[in-house]
Amino acid sequence: MKKNIFITLLFSSIFCLAQSKINKEQSIRVSYNLEYSPDSIHLNKKEYDLFYLTILKDRSIFNSETEYLKDSILNSRNPNNLFILNKSLFKNTIVKKNNKIINYINYNVYRFILNENLDLKWDLTKETKDILGYKCKSAKTKFKGRDYIAFYTDEIPISEGPYKFNGLPGLILEIYDSNRNYEFKAVTITKLTNDFDYKIFNQSNYKEVDYTEIKKLEAKIKDKPSILIMNDKIKLSEEAYDKYDRSYKEKNKYRNTPIELE
User: Fold this and answer.
1) What's the chain's Rg over C-alpha atoms?
2) Overall pTM > 0.90
3) Which of 15, 26, 68, 262 is deepest in the core (most CB within 10 A)?
């Protein structure tokens, strides 16, 4: 089903991108396909995820299709629809505003806000290509232990891009690291009405933390993954938690090529 939706999006993009002008004041939504290799042993084994970059006048919001639809469902007050969503490894919602990044990290019962400063240094290069009918120029940068190559178009003069990437003189339509472990590529661009507003989930149960605390939690999850499903409302037996730990560790034992290496 998800594959069919993706194909529909891909072909509909040819129609909706009939090269109508997009200025820097225009609110738009860009969908990106991510092709990635999370498995360090089988690097040729690719996985895929779909993401949305919603660009408004005062901020941008980047999240997976699953997280985006989750927000929409919660705002519609019909939470039963949450059970039909596809799973995504990417639980973050990344908000970029005034050159700051607000990273909302959702580990089920653990929910954090991590404020980040990001000042990417770009080297503009000479390679060009066409993406979705837009002429794109290339640039290189280093980020969190990886070397990246980006293709951006100044025909859309919005200094934005997928994930935490921005700072180029145009919209990033494609970006990948030098090993091609992570590759984002735009598949649709949709204009939004000027009064469109993105309602982010209830943030009252999110705790503001620093990077050190995030790393400590990730170490705890690696040691005992079942802490992700422990809460006061649902009690399981120790045997059930142990079974979850074994299953989680077996499934993820080779997943050690995260997008951020540092």
Assistant:
1) 19
2) no
3) 68
